[in-house]
Every structure is written in structure tokens, then in C-alpha cells.
Design brief:
2 domains, elongated, 215 residues, mainly alpha, 2 strands, 9 helices, two-stranded antiparallel sheet, Serine Threonine Protein Phosphatase 5, Tetratricopeptide repeat
Length: 215
Amino acid sequence: MVGLIFTTTLSGGQPLHPICSLARVEAILEQRRQRALALEREARERDPNQGTGARTIALLGVTLLALGAAIVASFSSRVPSPRELVAFPCVVLVSVLAGAFVLRRRLLDTAFNRQVFSCLVISMGVMLFGRLVGLFVEVPAAVHFARDSFVTAGVMALCAVSMLRWTFIIAVVFGVTGTLCMVLPEQSLQLFVFTPVVALTLATVTSWWSSRRAT
């Protein structure tokens, strides 16, 4: 019995010294500990409740920016020029990047938050690229608004499938807006500028609620 306790037999039938057996057990335990720590870090990286406070602040800032643009657009009765169409996504994108830089330690500290931020930047980047093309090719404003709405709807739908399910509602909102911009081109400006306000307000409230639940 003593031999069974203090010695281990290898596959070849050779006895293993107790010290070697203990070292092997300790190595296995260390490997499992490292694996557990890696899984814990991965879980934190994918946790949507991490950094919700910073996300809420960032979303609130973008919401206020979109609200200001919507108010200005509501008093305008003329069709915006191609340069003005470029200015809006440019200002929003620069503001988003600046806000992310200021809040980078809290906003971009996990893989999940970086993915959400990437979705927003990609959406705004595609919108800006389409508007820049409009500087060289004549494109009606309503077509810009419809295209941008559909692009945003697609990005939000992808986000809903892979990360946040509630963003599917935003995808539907932008999809409806894109359709209305094509059906009612004369109201496309008002439709398009007020849609981000609704969508961002929903996102801000949801993020705030998630942060409350996380605490």
C-alpha cells in the first residue's frame, strides 16, 4: 500500500520517484489554474456589462449631437448641398473618435466594447464615403439618406446577431426610414435626421439600464 501511495508506474512499467510524481501533479494543477484564468479573462472581454457606464456617456454625447443636427434640419426648407451632406457624418465621426480617445481606458477596455465601437465607426465611415462620392457624381439627397439608412440597418442587424440582440430594433427603425426616404423624398431630410435621435435615445436608455443591472 505504501508503494502505491508514494510511487507511480509509467506506461512502460518503470517506477516513478515520488518527487517526480509530485512535480507532475503540480505542473498539471498550474496548467489548469492558467487555463481557468484565461477563461476568466475571456469571459470579461466578452461581457456586455463591462464598461456600460462609459458607453452610456458616449451614446449620450452622440445623441445630443444628432439632436442638434435634427433641430437645425427641422428649420431648413432647402435641400442640403453635397458639401453639407459630407459635413454631417464627418463631424459625427470626428466627435465619436474624439470621445473614444478621451474615454479609451473605460470605453475600449474589452473586446466586446471594441467590437461595438467598430460597428459604429464602420457605419459612419461607409456613410462618409458615400457622401464623398456625391461630391463628384450627382446623387439626390434622398438617395443618400435611403442608402445610409439601409447601410446602418445592415450593420445593426449584424450587431444584433453577433452581440446585442436589442440592436435589431434599431435595424428595423433605419430600414423603415430608408424605405420612407425613397417613397417620400421631399421629407427625406427630416426623416433621416430624426431617426438617429430615436435610435440613439433607445441605445442610451438600454445601456443605462444595463449599467444599473450590472451594479
